[in-house]
Amino acid sequence: MVIRDGAVIHSRGYGLADLVDTRPLQPSTPVRLGSVTKAFTAMAIVILEESGDLTYDAPVTDWVPELARFEGITVRHLLNHTAGLPDYYGESPLEQLATAPARETPLANAEAATVYETWGEPVFPPGDRYEYSNPGYEILALIVERASRMTFGQFLDVHIFGPLGMSTAVVRARPETVVPKRAIGYSPQEDAEGWRENDDHWGNWLVGAGGVYASLNDLYWWDQALYAWAETGERLTEVLSPATLNDGTQSPYGFGWRISDRLGHAAIHHGGSWVGFRTSIVRFPEERLTVIVLSNATAAAGRLADSVAAIFLSTP
């Protein structure tokens, strides 16, 4: 999808959403967003801050006492990836916990957080540097749940998806959650032509760093809301401000968005990569141009988005 000055210039699907029933991929097809989800997680925290339910500089342990071993981490540190949490997707017992033979329920955020009660050491003091952290955003989703007393999916439905008219957007936090007409993820066969399904993973049910399905049509309304919020209030001031590190330097990440020049223009953007899905949203606010690419075929979404954006940025 290409959006310019609030109008959809181009919106189209290519290929199939599901190879079994040969459904076409369309602008209305919900696609797993991967880390593009982080912008929604960050906005959920912003909404809770606006309502007085938390503050950005509150200790994370106010909501997640499981992190008591990691002193000094604030909600803000998690939002801008400066917390210094070790990555529990690496050498922690998380995968063993999630895939235990006797396990009957999928791994959820609250259980994943308990790994930090006994495992891992700080990678660096909070605020010292930027280091991208999926666990940090899963902790943020847990904070949303505990501060709001709603599930993460319910909170996004009530405060973002519903009000914006994002009719197919949903958080898929359980295997039994049906996402009608969703895309299935695929990757190329490693030693042959064709495709293999790449849609299942034990980490699928951890939300916040990922977990949202949405269509191109949904993301149009999200993009327009971001412009409206930027023009009418201060909601996005912190979201789109680069993080200031302890030494006074800045990191090119705000709350759920990367903030940097792209193709020689000021941009806010984010990509996603999980199982067979690759996604990218690139916004050029000064040019009122947004390009969104959602792929269920392990495509190079960021490169595709840049290639399309370059065509429009070269056109007056």
Describe what you observe in this structure.
The chain has 316 residues and is α+β, with helices and mostly antiparallel strands. The protein has one domain (2-313): DD-peptidase/beta-lactamase superfamily (Beta-lactamase). 27% of the residues lie in helices and 19% in strands. The chain is built from eight helices and 15 strands. The chain has helices at 38-50, 75-79, 94-98, 109-113, 134-148, 152-164, 216-232, 301-313, and strands spanning 2-4, 7-10, 16-18, 23-24, 31-32, 170-171, 186-188, 195-197, 212-214, 243-244, 250-251, 258-262, 265-274, 277-284, 289-295. Strands 2-1-15-14-13-12 form a six-stranded antiparallel β-sheet, sandwiched between helices. A three-stranded antiparallel β-sheet has the order 5-9-6. The radius of gyration is 19 Å and the shape is globular.
Helix-strand blueprint:
Layout lengths: L1 E3 L2 E4 L5 E3 L4 E2 L6 E2 L5 H13 L24 H5 L14 H5 L10 H5 L20 H15 L3 H13 L5 E2 L14 E3 L6 E3 L14 E3 L1 H17 L10 E2 L5 E2 L6 E5 L2 E10 L2 E8 L4 E7 L5 H13 L3
Antiparallel strand pairs: 1-2, 1-15, 3-4, 5-9, 6-9, 7-8, 10-11, 12-13, 13-14, 14-15
Helix pairs in contact: 1-5, 1-6
